[in-house]
Amino acid sequence: ERPCSVPGGPRGVCRTGDVIVGGLFPVHERARSVTNDTSQRCDGFDVGAFLQAHVMVYSIGLINKSPMLPNLTLGYEMYDTCRDVTMAIKATLRLMEDRVNPTEDCLHLRNEGTASGRGVKAVIGERHSEISIAVARLLALPLIPQISYGSTSELLSRKSKFPSFLRTVPSDKHQTKAMAKLIKTLNWESVGIIGSEDEYGKFGVESLIDNMSACLDFKVILPTVVSREEDRDLLKKLMKRLGESTAEVIVIFTKESNAKVVLEEAIGLGIINKTWIASDSWSTSGEIRGLGGIQKIGKVYGFIAKRNTVPGFEEHVRNFTAQPTSEDSFFCDHLNLYTCSRETNLTGQRPGNCSLVDADECGASIQRLADYIDRDESYAVYLAVNVIAQALHRLLKCDYIKCERNATFSARELLEEVKQVNFTVDNITDIAFDPNGDPSLGYDILVWDTTDGKVSLKEMGEYAPSGDIVMPEHLISEYGNVT
Description:
Layout: E1 2-5, E2 11-15, E3 19-25, E4 28-31, E5 42-45, H1 47-65, E6 74-80, H2 85-96, E7 97-98, E8 108-109, E9 120-124, H3 129-139, E10 146-148, E11 165-167, H4 172-185, E12 190-196, H5 199-211, E13 215-222, H6 232-244, E14 249-252, H7 256-268, E15 274-278, H8 286-289, E16 298-305, H9 313-318, H10 329-338, H11 359-369, H12 377-395, H13 411-420, E17 422-425, E18 429-432, E19 443-449, E20 456-463, E21 469-470, H14 473-479
Parallel strand pairs: 3-6, 3-9, 9-10, 10-11, 12-13, 12-14, 14-15, 15-16
Antiparallel strand pairs: 1-2, 2-6, 4-5, 7-8, 16-19, 17-18, 19-20, 20-21
Helix pairs in contact: 1-12, 2-3, 4-5, 10-11, 12-13
């Protein structure tokens, strides 16, 4: 493993291999202004995104140790997008470069029709729809397959615009149908909806309104990024609307950071005992579930793509030792870059001048990191790596002893194989893509349980790919609006 960065752009980490897979992860929440040619500095360390990035590293390691690609090694080149479109574009342009030697400064662009053993052959990412859309427009030119683990906007299903985009999470088209079905199943008759101006929030709100039969009590569209300081008037009006609303349920369909601001305001003003539906962007958010007073807001239901654990990953993290010679130096390299000392918390607050962490401190930080492993987007990253490996297995004609073809092939060839995958991961999850690049996965329906004073996640049912809500009758009676 070695650091790799784009001058004036994002930081990254790379490992050589016969086939290179790109990765885009918002390890930080925002970019600072660039003052020189060095790599971009970013603020707001996102623990979840950092762990998801390492799931990609870990999953590639599992493939390399398996007989899936017997005489080939997967490498990677991943960058921190800092949740910024410009940063993601810079990283993508670097991934699209066809380099004779990744350390050389003389670079040239790939001819899309040429089979080459060099360059990135697939990209995993990004997490947010608005960033994936920008990336997908670029990767459509050389037809490099892009597999997102978190972008759910319906817009990305349009193959005329995004021909090389696929994902291991369902489209919001299915999520909004699932929400509408739950609203009908639980007999809620009036609904308030809060969305946002970005692709995720805008298309999600429009789709939900189209699908539901309940009365729309109100609709509020927030800016793409909501700030408690800069959007005081807007939030004041929203809180007034929430306080006066008679809606039986309120849907918040926007990114996690926006939902957090809305709920913090509601808690602060005593707007409590409501019923909420959380979209998949924040339904499992540990940060929001940890807000002071969150138990008072009322009942929260949520949707999340079918979840599972990444086999062995938690144990891998907990058993990690922070030695400089460790093959998993990715962890310590990034903690050195993004954290300071024991005074630094896991949200990236940096107390003044920071020094690099030593091995003991790195190890202690990693032990805490294991508590932040999620079961949704992390698993979607794991699925994406397995999809690429399965497609390579078919493309290179491998038989678990050897591969007949070498790594000289075009990204377009790999894309065609990725589109055709249809297999079961670990005898648990069936994965295949429809013509829009969307997977055949349903949703778990969650309810936030506050019985022990903390907010834990409880599965109360599921939304099947067939379009049916599967939920025990006694729960429908318990949670529904009985008339």
